[in-house]
Amino acid sequence: MRLARSLLAAVALGGCASPAPIPSDRGEDLARGGPAIVVEAGSAPAPAASAAAPIERVSEGASALPASTACPRDMVDVGVACIDRFEAPNVRGEKPLLMQTAEDGARWCKERDKRLCTEDEWVRACEGPHHRAFPYGTRYVEGTCNDDGVFRDAKWKVLGRWPSDDAKEEARRLDQSEASGARAACVSEEGVFDLTGNAAEWVVRTRKSETNFDHVLKGCFWGKCFRKPHTPSCDYVNFAHPGTFRSYETTFRCCADRRRS
Description:
Layout: H1 2-14, E1 75-77, E2 82-84, H2 102-110, E3 115-116, H3 119-127, H4 156-159, H5 165-174, E4 200-204, E5 215-218, E6 237-238, E7 250-252, E8 254-256
Parallel strand pairs: 4-7
Antiparallel strand pairs: 1-2, 2-8, 3-8, 4-5, 5-6
């Protein structure tokens, strides 16, 4: 019931803008328009690390698994591709880049000799070699990943004024993302962190959907998923938005082709 009321509130608020945006995961609509702006990593305080999961400022060596010679050290070999261990900027202990479009992600990855992940590559990384429903196991456990956040009504007119200071402040207020790797159990079999929860990730669509946009969002965000059953599983996809969609919970991670030995 709380979720339904939250969705109705978000839709009502989103209706203030013209045209009314399509609701994204759990009603967090996009404030459209304006130049490409990001909420910089570290713009909000990162949560304190638990004793079980110390946070260090490194982008590699976060897993005890041996590094693959087929992939750079800051990436994980998932068989079909190399994938960043963490959400952009791919640094353990830093918050993910937010307010990202798919185009932003593709450009950011290209500058680092990488590319945006495809949908199939992302799903393979999430499911692991044993095709688990969730990156950490076969059944959903709320809070294993950052998917237990509270709903906050967005001030859509304010967000629509990007890149004004008040719009940036509103994005920070809405932000409930956590530092990459903060939840030690939110990791795939092969050592990829935060694939579900935390922030929704842009990928290049490779599977059919109701919209067949070039890009889709995977992994949901800190408020679970928009469509029922709302559980952030590896196969859940948000196909409601084109790659130009920008919202306070959208990010990405990079992939690259495996090196041939």
